[in-house]
Amino acid sequence: MTTVRIGRLSALLLVVAVAGAANAQNVRFRGSDGWGAGTRYEQAFDNFNLRTVVATVLRVDTASPARDMGVGVRLIVSIDASKEEIPVHLGPMWFALNQDVNFPRNEKVEVRGFRAAFEGATFIMPVEIRSRNRIFRFRDDDGNPFWSIHRPR
After folding, report:
1. CB-CB neighbours of 123 under 10 Å
2. Which of 39, 34, 44, 49 has the alpha carbon at shortest distance from 95?
3. Where residue 3 falls among pLDDT bands split at 50, 70, 90?
4. Three-class DSSP labels, the chain
5. Global pTM?
6. Lesser CB count within 10 Å: N end or C end of the chain?
7. What whole-number distance in Å separates Cα of residue 57 and Cα of residue 101?
8. Those residues with Cβ within 8 angstroms of residue 132's Cβ, 6 or more apart along the chain or in another chain
9. Separation between Cα atoms, residue 99 and residue 78, nearest integer Å
10. Residue 53 main-chain phi, psi, to 5 deg
11. What is each CA distance from 76 to 28, 58, 59, 90, 105, in whole angstroms?
């Protein structure tokens, strides 16, 4: 009797394992929404041509850098030296909203990053933003974004 029960239990476990393996092949992760390492957007970043600008915060809003990318958060600033208005991309919305970041209107900030051109738009891809006594970092020393889990080899 126990041999029959063990046999049925083994058969049941085998069916569950095969079904689980079949379903595992259909698991789809959401991905980076176009913001990840190695994407067209990230290829626009140049860690060797960084510059620092002093700017005034005008507003914070959301936008998608390209049609095939998810929505991101951006800081719209006015560069103090030239009065040019330019967006500063803070990363994908899911990343930026989970940071302890606050940029009030008219706050003075120092933005260190790369001025990029992508999909016909010009913006700054920041490495860090300094504000009052705070430093917000968006990329590591190699220029990899903190929202990307993996790093290119």
Report:
1. 21
2. 34
3. low
4. CHHHHHHHHHHHHHHHHHHHHHHHCCCCCCCCCCCCCCCHHHHCCCCCCCEEEEEEEEEEEEECCCCCCCCEEEEEEEECCCCCEEEEEEEEHHHHCCCCCCCCCCCEEEEEEEEEEECCEEEEEEEEEEECCEEEECECCCCCECCCCCCCC
5. 0.77
6. C
7. 13
8. 107
9. 23
10. -130, 145
11. 34, 6, 5, 10, 10
Angle at 77 between CA 75 and CA 78, to 5 degrees: 175
Over residues 75-103, the pLDDT tens digits come to 999 999 999 999 999 999 999 888 888 89
User: For residues 122 and 26, is the Cβ–Cβ distance under 8 A?
Assistant: no
CB atoms within 10 A of CB 87: 18
Burial of 145 (0-12, 13-18, 19+ CB in 10 A): buried
pLDDT band at 62 (very low <50, low <70, confident <90, very high): very high
Nearest residue to 145 (alpha-carbon basis) of 106, 99, 76 = 99
Nearest to 89 by CA among 127, 51, 144: 127
Question: Taking the alpha carbons of 93, 42, 124, 66 in that order, is the dihedral positive or negative?
Answer: negative
